[in-house]
Amino acid sequence: MLANTPAPPLLEVRDLCVSFTSRGQVIPIVENISFSIGDREILGLVGESGSGKSITAMALMGLIDAPGVHVTGSARFRGRDLLALPDRQLRALRGREVAMIFQDPMTAFTPVYTIGWQIDEQLRVHQRLSRRQARARTVELLGEMGVPDPANTANRYPHQLSGGLRQRAMIAMALSCNPSLLIADEPTTALDVTVQAQILELMRNLRTTYGSSVLLITHDMGVVAETCDSTLVLYSGRVAETGTTRDLFAHPQHPYTAALLASIPPMSGPRPDRLPAIPGGPPQPMERPVGCAFAPRCAHTHATCLPAPPPRFCTVGPGHTVACVLPAEGAPLPPRSGSSTSPVL
Amino acid sequence: MIMPLLRRLGQTVFVLFGISALVFTVFFATPGADPTARIAGRNAAPQTMEKVRKEYGFDRPLPVQYAIMMKKLFITRDLASYANRGELVVPEIMRAAPVTLSLVTGAAIIWVVLSIAMGVIAAAFKDSWIDRGLMILGLVGISIPVFWLGQVVNLITQNRYHDTWLFSWVPGLGYVPFSQSPSGWFLALVIPWCVLAVMFVGIYSRILRADLVAIMGEDFIRTARAKGLSPTRVLLRHGLRTALITFVSLFGMDFAQLVGGGALLTEVVFGLPGVGRLTYQALNSLDLPLIMATVMYSAVFVVLANALVDAAYLFLDPRVRDVG
Amino acid sequence: MMTKPSDTPRPSAGPWASALRSLLRNRSALASFAVLALIVLACLCAPFYAHHIAHTDPFVSNVAGTIVLNGQETDIMQPNDNPLHLGLSPIGPTGSTTYLLGADSQGRDIMARLLYGGRNSLLISFSAAVLCLVMAGVVGISAGFFGGITDMVLSRLMDIMWAVPVYLFAISLSIVTITSGLRIGPFVIEADNLLIPIVIIALVYVPYAARPVRGRVIALRQAEFVTAAKCLGVPRWRIVLRDILPNVSTTLVVMGPLLMAMALLAESALSFLSIGVQAPAASWGTIILDGEGLIYTRPMVAIAPGLAIVAVVLALNILGDGLRDALDVRDTSRRE
């Protein structure tokens, strides 16, 4: 991990657990997630739907307030623990230091206000700006995000914009107060492919233009390969593997990561008849195995995988750890054949 | 832009026609007795019967009867009451309208303010005892027959506790025109306002709470919270503002129906000479022309008010604006 | 995979059984049900109460009568309390079994009339609610399922009925039938027949109930199992009976208690305006009307039936809420 770097990371999450109590039963959603994000780093959080990616992001933002939900662990952001901050201080941080954008730009804006009004609102909550100043900044932001005719677009309602424009406006709103961390929850899933590429380009450029770090949540390995410096693979609420994107894509050490990568269609060479798929589906939180959560679907399962506790983390390279028994047992997975990093570009 | 407007206008005209046909059918084509007897009133003389039959064309086919009726109601406005010795009906309704309007407007202000307060507080404290208490209170309000509540309130304020400091200001039953004495107008109407508002406070606070709770689970509320807005601002500026769309459309309907005569029971209990009490008096003398006229006017009013509500909807909900 | 018609959702025990279970856990719904059952039972016992406990005939004027109170013979109509003892007032609540709640201006036992009136009020509101649901079901299902012209005609008709204030609509229908009853061909329904208020109240609430049904049916019509059944050539009436009706029935059941509550309020209002239940029969509304003139001297005459109405309507509303939560149907009765 990045423990040896001189400056403390921007965000350091330790043992984040989210569970909720239903009819006296404690159901763990997310278990012991740890990771860190450095300045201007883009970290990809990958997993299937239901693996706990979005819950992790919501927990960091303090947006989980459903009754019966418990969040434990720590998330140090610039020396302050996001999970322990009082409401008022967290609110001051939210939207200013840490901002978030959401999957579906269709429903993420309040339908009855103009885009501009909603960006102005965020600016004016966190900064002392007049109405006029706020609007000027809004227009400027929209322009920087590549929105055509920003002054007019600001006066339009969410339903009047295309999905791509709306997501640009969403990013403009998130960046309006120059946050040092941007959490993007599947920002491109609801968009079509060309727009998706434009939005990713925009996100990649953020660190140079705004100096922001990004926590990018996605289920798309292709997006990760294109965008992220490091990658964290989640499976059923637990970390499966984490490392730099380059290492992880070249030498996936967790059978789940390997299987995910194998399911990306190759860009060159002969096309396979069928893409390899992982048999079965991820377990429900209540039925999660006590040992390795991936064991029921894994081709390498053997006796040591099954008993509790889940496999411990095993360091296989600088900053590259994996929660699997194979490397420790001296039988690591072979490096991936074919291209060393990205399947795209 | 022109086409949708024209279509809306066409719809309005159609509904107006439909309502007049419906009311006409109810009064003159309901199987049973001869409509002549219904109009002429109880034990009318044969000459009167003959006159009525001629005047309304009951010896001619139904469409002609309908046309005559509409002409008498809206064009010549000489529909006359037989039970009440030829009093012209339409001017009578016009005289009563301001009373009803005063009653309903005041009650509407009370019910809008109270139900928004109750609905928002209940939604903010969802599932707490405050929420449950307010919603039970609303349910009780919905369950009380308004005419009975009026009687009980009269019993308390006019009789049993009238001589205490609490209710000694309550004037006797009846109406004081605003032009005569604004303060008298106000005092005479305060109690009826509150009584009429009770049921609507119940209905609207419950609807608003349910809408707010549903809206607070929407994605855009999560965005608003992620922006760092205070919970109050999220609830009011984003939640309530969005919930108001439904609220306003319901309000328009109910307000129109009340002005159109739905406040009849309240007017009767408090002796307010509005359109509703006019209908009530007509009921007691079986004065069919008067009843039909009030029903028809109220329906027209409701339809026009609905068109207004649609306009308000356009103002409140930008999504509707573009669909046209 | 083909969807066979036998795979389509059925009125299986599943949703109803689980709804019943969650309803049985709902304490306020259970309490409401108990209150309702108690009131219904009491009203059913009206003749027994009148003959064997109160020993009065609540339908006969008894202005000159006397009763024995604490061993003393007492007039039912008593001189007023004013200094000159001008005029007569009926006896107030006696605290004994006869004239428990006092008498009305015709010297009739209020408690006994309350029970008899309850029978009418409950019978009318219950029948009106059921009839309304049946009509709304037919209208909503035909409009939603057949669409096209049928839908247009029915929906416009509902729009038109919706625009007339409910009470005014009911009053209009009542006033034309109250004078001489209804004559449809050979069938004559007398003006004092309870069928008249039942049909009127059911009719005026049809738009309220039919709209949500129509919406639900339109959603169902596009559901895959209906498409599948259509593709397999299942006759339309069979689709309606086997696939649509069971799925709409939850919507209808949830509306039941709420409609009965509205019907009870409407019935009492019509009776209060003397165009509902006709004398000498009683309903809670007519008793309130009887009590109107006595409100300052003998308030119990009007208060007692009002409290009965509030109790029943409140219980029905709570029960309806409980049913809605149990069957997980969104409240759509007051929206488009």
UniProtKB/TrEMBL annotation, chain A:
Annotated family: Belongs to the ABC transporter superfamily.
Membrane-related topology note: Peripheral membrane protein
Keyword Cell membrane annotated: yes
GO MF annotation terms: ATP binding
Top-level division of the source organism's lineage: Bacteria
Pfam family, one: ABC_tran
Entry's localization field: Cell inner membrane
Ranges for domain ABC transporter: 13-261
Keywords carried by this UniProt record: ATP-binding, Cell membrane, Membrane, Nucleotide-binding, Transport
Protein's recorded name: ABC transporter ATP-binding protein
Automatic annotation (TrEMBL), chain B:
UniProt topology in membrane: Multi-pass membrane protein
UniProt superkingdom: Bacteria
Annotated TM spans: 12-30, 99-122, 134-156, 185-204, 243-270, 290-316
Coiled-coil blocks: none
Keywords: Cell membrane, Membrane, Transmembrane, Transmembrane helix, Transport
Residues of the ABC transmembrane type-1 domain: 97-309
Alphabetized PANTHER family for the sequence: DIPEPTIDE TRANSPORT SYSTEM PERMEASE PROTEIN DPPB-RELATED (PTHR43163)
Protein name: ABC transporter permease
